Amino acid sequence: MARVFVYGTLKRGQPNYKYMINTANGLAKFQGRGRTVEKYPLVIAGKYNIPYMLNIPGTGHHVAGEIYSVDDQMLQFLDEFEGCPDMYQRTLKRIEVVEWEEKGSAGEARGSAEGIVECFVYSTTTYPPEWVGLPYYDNYDSSGKHGLSYVLRESR
């Protein structure tokens, strides 16, 4: 099992969460909420209003998201879903645990006394330069105040 941190449309209550709970794609177990230890720009970009975490450490915000434990089948599905390695690249990043789902497994799940775990994160280094000038967010919600409605894949 691998840990994956999701910050966009794959979170609970977001448009693509259905893929995380579809066991035909593999297994994904929600472990808790977290945020990136380093700051990153989280932007909403492109004609489909997709959230992207730009891989520019030290710029932007501590990005909030969810931590999942996934099997190899789900990891492979997510790679394909995220257009890895062309659109997004999957890299290990340090995530600060904000809240664990299962209190009893906190010791195992945290992985360290500081409550920091390493998770795979889909971020990008392949983006148009003007994206750096877009507004940065610390928490993505497809129906947020930004007014940039995410366009579902089936509607494109």
How would you characterize this protein structure?
- The protein is mostly beta strands and 156 residues long.
- It has one domain (2-101, 109-131): Hypothetical upf0131 protein ytfp.
- It is 12% helix and 31% strand.
- It is built from 3 helices and 7 strands, in the order E-H-E-E-E-E-H-E-H-E.
- The chain has helices spanning 17-20, 72-81, 106-110; strands at residues 2-6, 28-36, 42-45, 50-53, 64-70, 89-100, 116-123.
- The chain has a 5-stranded mixed beta barrel with strand order 1-5-2-6-7. It has a two-stranded antiparallel ribbon with strand order 3-4.
- Strand 3 and strand 4 (50-53) form a beta hairpin.
- The protein is globular, with a radius of gyration of 15 Å.
- It starts with a strand and ends in a 33-residue tail after the last strand.
- The model is unreliable at 105-113 (pLDDT under 50).
Per-chain topology:
Blueprint: E1 2-6, H1 17-20, E2 28-36, E3 42-45, E4 50-53, E5 64-70, H2 72-81, E6 89-100, H3 106-110, E7 116-123
Parallel strand pairs: 1-7
Antiparallel strand pairs: 1-5, 2-5, 2-6, 3-4, 6-7
Function: Catalyzes the formation of 5-oxo-L-proline from L-gamma-glutamyl-L-epsilon-lysine.
Pfam families: GGACT
EC number: 4.3.2.8
Keywords:
single chain; 156 residues; mainly beta; Hypothetical upf0131 protein ytfp; five-stranded mixed β-barrel; two-stranded antiparallel sheet; 7 strands; 12% helix
Q: Which CATH class is shown?
A: Alpha Beta
User: What's the alpha carbon Rg, rounded to whole Å?
Assistant: 15 Å
Overall 3D form: globular
Fourth CATH level, the homologous superfamily: Gamma-glutamyl cyclotransferase-like
Sheet/helix structural class = mainly beta
Beta fraction: 25-35%
Arithmetic mean of pLDDT: 92
Q: CA-to-CA gap between the ends?
A: 33 Å
The CATH topology turns out to be Hypothetical upf0131 protein ytfp
Strand order of the largest sheet: 1-5-2-6-7
Low-confidence stretches: 105-113
Number of helices: 3
* CATH architect. name: Roll
Number of strands: 7
Write the H/E string, N to C: EHEEEEHEHE
Helix content: 10-25%
How would a textbook summarize the main sheet? Answer: 5 strands, mixed, barrel
**How many structural domains can be distinguished in the coordinates?**
1
